[in-house]
Structure formats: structure tokens, C-alpha cells
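note to self: the first set is below, dont mix up w the second
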Amino acid sequence: MPAHSDLVLVATLNGVRTLTMNLPKRLNGWTQQMMARFTEELARAADDADVKVVVFTGTDPYYCAGVNLGGAIKLTSPRKLHALLVAHNEALFRTFIDFPKPILVAVNGPAIGAAVTTASLCDGIIASEKATFSTPFAKLGVAAEGCSSVLFERLMGADNARRMLGPEGWAPTGQEAVDIGLAQWLAPHDALLDQAQSLAEGWIAEGRPRTHRGNATLDELREINARESIEVANTLLGSPFLHNQFKFLWSRKKRGPALTFLALKASRPLWKLLL
């Protein structure tokens, strides 16, 4: 694994700070270390007067494979674990909701789960022709997150939101994402970052402030995120999700994390006594 400082590559040009998630062997999945690193860099960009716009992207071939829950779920009391999951989920999305400067997300490849929903919380999405957008929450037995329960319908209409968030689990391509309104721009893969830089510099020239898509207000997104975070924690501790995670991790020969999920599932009948 790269050193902590190398998990996010940082470059600045003409007022544009580009942050590149750099864990390609794990498909830029959001480990605890990765989330800590990009949170640090976003905070630095927010405080740097010379940074006017942030471009957020990933090292090929993936944009991001989503959150690694193995690091977030541990054996502890049900009440404490539920509270930790609520706080963890809410804080992740507040990082993007509360960021004070425009963020342009350059999706260079497959984006999964929270990688998609956090992108929709930013000012704009430019997609590579190699991009796909997957939110398989229904398949995993998890509640919608990142304000997607409200924002997706506003951005792309009820039918397309249902296709992405529901049992179908539709994963639109970059072109399809533009067609339905999830993304605003499509770029040839090799020109993605150049076009993102040009768009960001255009935002600076026009003095664009931080905006939220779907005519959402800051307070509204915070409220939706808080509500969804409770629902997400409820479903993450449900038997279907715990069982599916055990099976998945066991199939990947990740015995320790797999047994954690199995132990949580097996102990669920006792949780009422422990609350």
C-alpha cells in the first residue's frame, strides 16, 4: 500500500487544486486511511486562499470502488456500533456538502456507491467515456446514502433514479449519465483532466461560488444526510447485509473480517438484551 502521503496526489495550477485518489491496486476504494487523507487535503484546499476550485479524480483504471466497510464495522456493543456507523456515514458526506469552494468531479472510470453519491453532492461531474456509475444499494440491502434518496430524482427524474437505486441496479455509462442529467459533461478519456482543468479555470474566471445541484440548500442536504445516516446504520446492522458481507469476504479469503460479520449476525438475537 502507498504511504499515507501518497494515497492522494496533489497538484495545483492556475488556482485549481487537483486531488487524485491513488490506490489503484484496491481500485481507489475508500479505506479509513484513504478517507482520512482526502479529508485532510480538502480541508487544506478550503483554507488555501490561492485555491479557487478543486478537481477530484482517481488514478486509472477506476475512479473509486466505494467504501471499504471492513474497516468501519467492528465487534462492539450494538448501541455503540450503531452510533459509530451513523457518525461515520454522516461525516463522510458532510465533507462534501460543507466544502466551501466549487468541486468538479472528473470520473475517469467505474464509480461505485458513495463515490457516485458524493460526486452528485459536488458542483459538477465530467465523465470519461470509460466511466460508469453504480449505486447497488438495493442489491446489498443497504439504504440509499449521500442524499441520493432525494437528489437523484431531482437530477435525473424518478424513473432513472429508481433504476439506479432500486433492484435493477442500473449502472449508466458516462454518455448515459450525461443523457439523464447525472453528469454534465463527457470527455475522451485521454482528455478528461485537461477538459476538467479548462472547466475549472472557467469557473474561476466567472467568479462562480459553491453551489449545490438540484436546487438543494445547504441546510436541506444536511438534514437529508442526517436522516439517511440513521437508515444506513439500521440496514448495515440488519441480518441480510451482515450475511451477504460474510459470504462475500469469505469468498475473497478475508477470514478475519468475514468472521466479524458472521459473529455480528449470530449475536443479533441477543442485541435487545444488550441495548
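second set (the one i keep forgetting abt)
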Amino acid sequence: MGYPVREYVKNFWYHICTRGQRGEPLFFSFTDRIKYLSLLDAELSRRGGNIGSFCLMTTHLHLLLRMAAVPLGEILQVAHSQYGKFFNARHGTEGHVLQKPPKVKIVLSDAYLWGLVGYLHRNPLEAGMVNQVTDYRWSSWYWFEGQECDWITLKSWLYPPGFEGPAGRQRFREAVDRGDHYWPDGRSYIGTEAQWDQLTKRRQPGREAQAYKERRGLQELKDIAGSMVVGTGYTIEQIQGPSRNKKICFIRHKIMAEMYTEGHKQADIARFFNRTPRAVRKAIKKFSGL
């Protein structure tokens, strides 16, 4: 049986959800996440359309996209194919990375839009991965809170209606704090299932949250530094110290870049080394290749 025909309507907003094939992770590192979003942003910028919200979880992702002249299905197909090739090459895997096809809902009311923006950003919180929405680095809360995102710039970004400016920031906070979400009836659904049961249920701390915490535990700053100083003849304390020795500086900057690539914030890295965020940014630019 073929997939149902999708209706993509110009200038309408759509909620997109897609998962990793067989429930496997879509992202293992910072580099994976920035690559996915960069590919999607580039394709939307090139062919038309906008990103209005996103949340990149571990085994799945949520997007709020506005369609222009080119159907979103075509844009997603290209971006997802490109990401699949990147992911397989980087991690030595084969086959489909993203589950096909993505689930799609058209946004037909303000109530759905506002509830959706709140729900999308609460995903990590309700999954037990963080204590508050702004603790989760891989979603679009930066834009809604009026802050500069420290890991990506989106050319195709467009605020959803009603979320611009100071009033929009207040509406965003209310939508996130409220925690209740309006879900449209089946007439708003365009996809492969009549209901999104897994999206209408409250997420409970479970396998994904535990996997996230375990992965973060393996990437503690001290563990990254410890593994990278092995064989250099230096200790972590020497690398953290004030020395301007060229070899020590080289190792220090390389470790900074690796910490950032693994997903740590620049401010946390700066504190670990007792350096300024500017020093961390210079190291990232030199070694990360991003």
C-alpha cells in the first residue's frame, strides 16, 4: 500500500515529526545536530519556506515550518537524504537514517499554533531530560526569549504569528508554563496515522532520558580532558593552568574544541579552564572545523 497523498498549502504552517529508523538515535553529537539543521535551513532558504520552531531530541525531532511555493515534502526529502548520507559516512552505518515518511499536521488555528509552540519546547522537559526548557540546548527557545543562539544562525527563521517582540516573548513563556495543549481533530491531520497517540500523551522519564543522561555522563568535561592529555606528558591541572607554553596552549585549545563539538556550552568550557568565552571561541574556530 502506498503512502497517502499529502496536501501542502502555500503560506500555511506545518508541524513535522520524524524519528530515527527502528527507533534508533538521529543524533550522537553537537556536530550531527548542527549539520541536520544547517542542511534543512539551506534548502528552505534556497527553495522557499521558513523554520518557526524546532526541537532536536535524541531519537526524533519536531519542526514547525512554513511552506512557500515549493512543497515542504520536496524540501524535506532533499535535506533528509543529505543528512542520511552525512550520518552514515560519519558513523560508519548504512541504510535509512530517518523513518519514512515524516508525520505532518497542518496548523489551522491560533489555538493549535500557540499550544504547539509550547508543546514542542516542553518535549525535553516532559521527557525528564532537563529541569527547565532553557536548559535544553537543541531547541529554538533562544529566538523566543530574545537571546542569541550560540551554535547556529538560521537564514530561514521566521517567528510564528503572535510570537514576535516583547509580547511574543510573554506569550511563549505562558505557552511553555501552561503545559496544556490544544490538539486539533482528524481534519487537521495529513500523514499516515489518524491520531498522534505518542504526541498527545505526557512524556514520562524513560529510556530516552536515561540514554541522554548516560551519554552526557560519558562526555563530562573532566573526562574529555583526561582522555586527551594521555600520552602528552602533561596533567589536566597543567592544561588548566596559566601556562603560555606553546605545546600546552595547543593541547588546551584542541580540548576546548572537542568539548564544544561534544555539546558543551562555551561558558562551561571557559569556567573549566578559567578562561574567557572569547578564548574558547578562538579555539573552536581553529580546531573544530565548524
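remember for set 2: The chain has twelve helices and five strands.
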